[in-house]
Amino acid sequence: MSKILVTGGAGFIGSTLVDRLIKEGNEVVIIDDLSSGKKEYVNPAAKLYKIDICSPKVARIFQKEKFQFVYHLAAQIDVRKSVEDPVFDNKINVLGGLNIIENSYRHQIKKIIMASTGGAIYGEAEEIPTTENYPTFPLSPYGIHKLTLEKYLNYYYHVYGLNFTVLRFANVYGPRQFKGGEAGVIAIFVENGVKEKESLQFGDGLQTRDFVYVDDVVDGLYAAMNIDCRGEINIGSGVESTLLEVRENIEKALGEKIKIKEKPKKLGEQRRSCLSYQRAKDVLNWEPKINLEEGIKRTVAWTKSLKK
Ligand SMILES: NC(=O)c1ccc[n+]([C@@H]2O[C@H](COP(=O)([O-])OP(=O)(O)OC[C@H]3O[C@@H](n4cnc5c(N)ncnc54)[C@H](O)[C@@H]3O)[C@@H](O)[C@H]2O)c1
β-strands 241-242, 208-209: how paired? Predict the structure, then answer.
């Protein structure tokens, strides 16, 4: 049993991770300001501190709780918001993250695991599926700031010996996803579909993404805790799926057509995105288990259960 801090533990991926860590017998403390996370997602066996990761109070929590491991998932996750307000994104995703890293070092935790992004860090990659060695060319402040925090972790490891792993997620989806997120297309289409509301589709629907189910991502996060591995590891399905395929799978799960309004392509929108998970397989012994059809089926069932 370990004592573990999860920042962002009230959010979509964080709360699913917290449930898993508790199920495996660990003691979990959460730092989350509930800006997009929800109290109802917080496992009752976890202790929640409702504060900002930028706050100086973070040091007191580290001092008091004495963590062995830290998962850093708290973030401003909206790419469009990062474009509108890069200074705010920098404050949370760089300075807030640095506050967590600095305290992890000062309080001598065993390892920090950070949630980064594959979708927003490689840009319009020519190598598909994209490996971790591909040049990073983030096309948004969000991607730049995630990359900056990765570099800080690398620095703290080389200068101070702080052990770390960075997981670069593809487009994560599943129950509890916040609709305003980085890759909320499945959450948006499913919720609108269940409520029989119209969804907007930008472009021809042939743009591709790598959709990875939240339970698979949590398996990757969990594996990273006890395996000695540093550097960056992609966590994706390795499958390129078009938006039209997403629509078809939602319609199959719902048993009816969803209402779609087609709009022109968004300026600067990435055409293709797909991550190679070979390194995760080699290092973490991790492979995705849930395909898009099954993952969407589960997401639809969960969304329907909320309606009752
Ligand atoms: N969802 C994806 O497809 C995806 C893809 C790549 C990377 N990620 C990363 O995974 C992590 C989790 O994302 P998610 O999809 O679960 O999003 P989420 O919005 O559900 O979770 C983020 C959590 O952080 C909290 N938070 C935000 N700002 C905070 C602050 N200043 N102080 C304290 N708490 C704060 C929110 O309340 C929320 O609970 C993030 O770091 C995100 O960048 C997500």
Answer: antiparallel
